[in-house]
Amino acid sequence: MKLAVLFSGGKDSCYAYYKAMQKEKVVCLISLISSNKESYMFHTPNIELVELQSKLMNIPLVKINTKGKKESELKDLEKAIRLAVKKYKIEGIVTGAINSVYQSSRIQKICKKLNLWCFNPLWQINQEDYLRELIKNKFEVIITGVFAYPFDKSYLGRKIDNNLIKELIELKNKYQINPAGEGGEFESFVLNCPLFRKRIEILKSEKEYRNHSGVYNIKRAR
Amino acid sequence: MILIIDLCYKENSLSYDEFVKPIKNIVKDNYKVKHFTKITEKEIKKSDKIILCGNALMDFEFIKETKRFSWMKNYSNPILGICAGAEIINLIFKGKLKKNIIIGMKKIKIKKNKLTNKEELEVYDIHSYSLNISKDFEKLSENNEMIKHKEKDIYCLMFHPEVRNEEIISNFIK
């Protein structure tokens, strides 16, 4: 089956791609470039870098800009999926949804409308096991956005390693955060994984942070 | 042993982690997972309970092969059918399916039963059909979201208990 992955450059969509390509044929990635930093549906920090990631994975990218307003962003997503159907004859969509019924049911509805399969290979995964699986499978992931208490500036740009996983589990027990950040607590970016031809090197970056909310902007990378 | 039956379009499919693995994670131990095309009579006889998992919204492969499920009529232990699993149970007991696409969370009123002591549940639905229920079954909720065989411990759920209602599965395997 020919599939497209809804791709944000973060760990979930990248790992969903990694899992999907082991079972079916992934023919393109689809990215929504949202200008709304508080998008309900789409990951935003460093979204422009999906282009570099797709090149390193040698897979075509279908890219659409969206203003990221609550319901119009779904129309833009549908537009992007229609484009992938036309261009790459896809028969289904893969998402990195873990537990969000908000995101997942909206994508399922679009897929049903367009007569496409919808796959969510990370659905209901144990988040602690999942973070460890990423490390085991050589995914190098950094935190590029924090949007909730108790995440402070020091988390921006940090690599997800065993120490960080331990901290995230402690934060989960203390503050009920999702350790994989799926509740929007943090966003991530994949610097390297077995799908990449080479590791992404960050040449220039900048941290912006205030009131438990901040982003790690990758200004230049290769 | 709990026999967990995979109803996805093929064995070891991309849907497995989405519909079968979450059930395995709740059951935890003393289970065996088999794809519906691979179940043997011996495994059915050896099982204490059976769970039939759900599958993707576009997946209708299992409906083409209803003959493979005729063992259900003579099975005397408890069965839990989730979504696609509920559809196949209803078909085997001569109920019907009607086209009715439902996707998302909703609240339903429910009669207390062995699987839940709540009177209202917030459930996650993702299905293309609803059940026109078999005369052997009774309704436990509105819209036939949960039905039960009148005499046997056979339950059909159109919603996905592995999402937000795990205790239903835990109560079933107790």
What's the helix and strand layout?
The complex is a heterodimer of chains A (222) and B (174).
Chain A: E1 2-6, H1 11-20, E2 25-34, H2 50-56, E3 61-66, H3 72-88, E4 92-94, H4 101-113, E5 117-119, H5 127-136, E6 140-146, H6 162-175, E7 186-192, E8 202-210, E9 213-221
Parallel strand pairs in A: 1-2, 1-4, 2-3, 4-5
Antiparallel strand pairs in A: 6-7, 6-9, 8-9
Chain B: E1 2-6, H1 16-19, H2 21-27, E2 31-35, H3 41-46, E3 49-52, E4 79-82, H4 84-92, E5 96-109, E6 120-132, E7 137-139, E8 146-149, E9 154-157, H5 166-173
Oligomer: heterodimer
Give the radius of gyration of chain B.
14 Å
Succession of helices and strands of chain A: EHEHEHEHEHEHEEE
DSSP helix fraction of chain A: 25-40%
Structural class estimated from helices and strands of chain A: alpha/beta
Q: Kindly report the greatest chain-chain contact and the residue count on each side.
A: A-B, 25 and 23 residues
Uncertain residue segments of chain B: none
Count all strands of chain B and give the number.
Answer: 9
How far is the N terminus from the C terminus of chain B?
A: 12 Å
Largest sheet strand order of chain B: 2-1-3-4-9-8-7
Q: Would you identify the CATH architecture of the largest domain in chain A? A: 3-Layer(aba) Sandwich
Characterization of this structure:
The complex is a heterodimer of chains A (222) and B (174). By secondary structure, chain A is an alpha/beta fold. Chain A has two domains: 2-119, Rossmann fold (3-Layer(aba) Sandwich), CATH 3.40.50.620; 137-221, putative n-type atp pyrophosphatase, domain 2. Chain A has six helices and nine strands. Chain A has helices at residues 11-20, 50-56, 72-88, 101-113, 127-136, 162-175, and strands at 2-6, 25-34, 61-66, 92-94, 117-119, 140-146, 186-192, 202-210, 213-221. Chain A has a five-stranded parallel beta sheet with strand order 3-2-1-4-5, sandwiched between helices. Chain A has a four-stranded antiparallel beta sheet with strand order 7-6-9-8, with no helix packed on it. In chain A, 44% of the residues are buried. Chain B is built from five helices and nine strands. Chain B has one domain: Rossmann fold, CATH 3.40.50. Chain B is an alpha/beta fold. A seven-stranded mixed beta sheet of chain B has the order 2-1-3-4-9-8-7, with helices on both faces. Chain B has a two-stranded antiparallel ribbon with strand order 5-6. Classes of the chains: A alpha/beta (222), B alpha/beta (174). Chain A binds chain B through residues 1, 19-20, 23-24, 92, 94, 101, 105, 108-109, 111-112, 115-126, and chain B through 12-15, 17-18, 21-22, 25, 56-59, 101, 103-105, 124, 126, 128, 162-164.
